[in-house]
Write a structure and sequence with these properties.
By secondary structure, this protein is of the alpha+beta class. About 25% of the residues lie in helices and about 20% in strands. Strands 1, 3, 4, 5, 10, 11, 12 and 13 form an eight-stranded mixed sheet that branches. It has a three-stranded mixed sheet with strand order 6-9-7, with no helix packed on it. Strands 14-15-16 form a three-stranded antiparallel sheet, with helices on one face. Helix 4 packs across helix 5 and helix 8 packs across helix 9. The relative contact order is 0.23.
Amino acid sequence: MSTTNGQWYPPEWPERIRLLSAGELTPVAPRRAATVLLLRDGPYGTAGQDAPQDAQDARGGDGEHTPDELDAAERPGTARESVGAPEPADAAQGPETPPEGPRDAAGGAAGPAVYMLRRRASMAFAGGAYAYPGGSVDPRDERMVTWAGPSRAQWARRLGLDPSEGTQAQAIVCAAVRETFEEAGVLLAGPTPHTVVADTTGDDWEADRAALVARDLSFAEFLDRRGLVLRSDLLSCWARWITPEFEPRRYDTWFFVAALPRGQRTRNASTEADRTVWIRPGDAADGYDRGELLMMPPTIATLRQLVGYGSVADALAAATDRDLTPVLARARVENGELVLSWPGHDEFTKHIPGATGGPSA
């Protein structure tokens, strides 16, 4: 179900909250997961032009193209020097360039765009909701890979783990990079610590991507086979959210931000999504507020936090000082109502009438 805006709200939550409050529900341990807010600068359509709508398909500006749609003269080489700079808009748009969106006073594009996908309505969890590429950590993500960027111990500290948990930190970062490749066709890795691959559209890349999705190939094997270095320096951590204790499918999820590498193009490579779009965070938030775009609290919260940054570089720089205290929903029974809240995010507080008995949770 959805509320007056576009917040995703499962119909089974009230009953599960009641059971948790009464001590009749044992929370399951959350699985570690990672998701990536992939960003790029350039001209994009406004919400009325390119934003995904329930009543119309998103067209133009979604950056989704098959290899046959790309002019051979525009195809990039095998690798490019990169320090995380985003792909220029004209190269990333493909054959159809969308109308330009709002401009700032200096004549530049009004902030970066973020890549989002809509989960298929048939999905058991958050069907129909807009989200970012991401998924659970694969135990094999702990396998050693060639690594560039901050050390594993440094990543552990940044992710809120003990510095001794470097292997766990690597697994989370690897999951972020792997899931972005699996679901968007974008790979944050290169043949050297200072390059990124620039073309992942060939049949051989697709075969490896499919093998990763099927878990026939581990990410470490994939990188080793291709002689690639994982570029952890192209990622910055933005937030951390933990699925509420009353949910049967729980995740401890780190949200990363990253720039679309030069030369690479996004595509809807996920079987879990039926639509994708490049959209400014403010436009997506407006769609949510109008009830047109369905989202879970972590998604709309991170979108709102990105509003106001003038470029991808600005957003990446801001990520360094972000507070990564986990956000965990709380539920309590108060005056015959179930009260559901997310600390620090008052807009998501819900009062559900008709609660019965049980202590506060």
